[in-house]
Amino acid sequence: MDADKAYQEAIRHGRYSEQVQGLRCKYDHVRIHFEDFITSYYLRPYLEDMVKLKVNKNGEGLRFYDLGCGTGDGYELLSKMARQARLSQFDTRLIQDDMMDQYKGIDLSIELLKEAENLFGDYEHVNFCKGDFSNGLPVEEGEDGYDLYFTSYGTLSHCNNEELEKLFVDIGKHAQNGSLVLADFLGRYSYEWQNLWTHDPEEVTYMDYVINYLYQEEEREQVELSSFPMRLMTPEEVFRILERAARKAGVQLKVLRFFDRSLFVGRHIETGTYNGNAQPLRLMVSSLFERGLRTYFPDLKVNYIPREGFDWQNESLQKLADSWNALVDYTMVLMEHYDSDEELLPYPPQTDVKPLEKAYRVMRQSLEGSRGLYGDIRADLIEAQLGYAIRSLEMNLQQGHGLGHGLVGIIQIVK
Questions:
Q1: Contact criterion met (CB below 8 Å) for 242 and 413
Q2: How far is the C-alpha of 388 from the C-alpha of 382, rounded, in Å?
């Protein structure tokens, strides 16, 4: 893999650490409240079934293999994944400490593995080691299969088709019947790299990816950063690889679902590196979750510029942009009437878009119910609710077609 140098640069400049949090960093609010949440939301039902079957029924522990673990990203997500719980319940974790038999994380970067060890190495069921999955699945002879083979944030886009096929063949052979793979790629039709859209995937198989989004705009022009190829994917391209791998492994690689993640809040939505029409939307949405900070709502609106000749992509993204903007507009209207001390806030406009209809209702209820509460109501309550409502629009107005920064597949091994 060619990405190690680029990640070393990010680590060396202090931009890729687990401890760094805020508005512009690896672990910004969008990462936590949008991206990690969405991945957990779609994966959770399948892990709940595993917990019921393996842990509750058979008394077995769960085994996880994190490919490209970084600083322990998979462990962070899985160990904090929440189950449905009542308000009165304290511990909402789906996977309790005693339910995890083993978490194994591999990565090429020694620096990232050191950070992972510092964070999670004290847990006896956690193991980190250097490993390269571009040559197949790194396992030792006699090593038991895992319940979940986990990847995150475009990890599998580091591989070419042959490497992906070999990896899925190895997973198919190594896994148990019913094991899952969370396969995380870069979506081919993300608005972030609209310049690279093509009707023929063979024309643009890879993008030349650079980790410049962690830097301020003025810094990006001054710092020389390494780039590396990343595979762009649609569900159809993934299906073809899985079909070949399944035949060779003698198993069924059953896609349970695809979902898009980060349609307008991906990492490169504001750099302009691959789309001159990009806006700082990720920063603005992240600002919604920053306590004590009020966000300038007009800058939160999406100015979607369609690309001629890509009708279904434009139609889907324009629908999300229109719904997003309508929600922001209505929230601004609500705040204006709230300030006028009107007893009844205005009802939302009519819409045939069901997710937008619900988001309207939630925002109106949030403002009506906030009267008399303590603190900066806008910064600490209303803006966060708007952030969650926008997230709901992104989730409900996508169909897993490769329109987001991430195209994620949940795949089951059937033997």
A1: no
A2: 10
C-beta separation of 363 from 355 below 8 A: no
d(CA 302, CA 324): 7
- 226 to 5, 168, 185, 223: CA distances (angstroms): 7, 29, 20, 10
Q: How far apart (Å, rounded) are the C-alpha atoms in residues 153 and 178?
A: 24
Helix, strand, coil abundance in the chain, percent, nearest 5: 45, 15, 40
Assess contact for 234 and 401: CB atoms under 8 A: yes
| CATH 3.60.21.10 applies to domain 4-263+401-414 | no
**Any alpha helices (H) in 148-229, and if so which ranges?**
161-174, 217-220
CA neighbor of 1 nearest in space, from 169, 132, 171: 132
| Segment 107-123 mean pLDDT | 92
pTM above 0.90, yes or no: yes
Unique residue bearing structure tokens 């189950």:
83
> Are residues 403 and 234 in contact, defined by beta-carbon separation less than 8 angstroms?
no
pLDDT tens, position by position, 386-396:
999 999 999 99
Q: What is the mean pLDDT of residues 83-97?
A: 91
Contact 361, 390 (CB under 8 A): no
- Tens-digit pLDDT profile for residues 347-396: 999 999 999 999 999 999 999 999 999 999 999 999 999 999 999 999 99
Q: Where are the domains of the chain?
A: 4-263+401-414, 281-396
> How distant is the alpha carbon of residue 133 from its chain centre?
21
With vertex at residue 181, the alpha carbon angle to CA 7 and CA 104, rounded to the nearest 5 degrees, is 60
CA neighbor of 401 nearest in space, from 263, 203, 249, 242: 263
Q: Which residues pair with 260 in a beta bridge?
A: 407
The CA distance from 11 to 24, in Å, is: 15
- Residue 285's Cβ-count burial label (10 Å; 0-12, 13-18, 19+) is buried
Mean pLDDT of the chain: 92
Distance CA 239, CA 106 (A): 25
Distance CA 408, CA 400 (A): 8
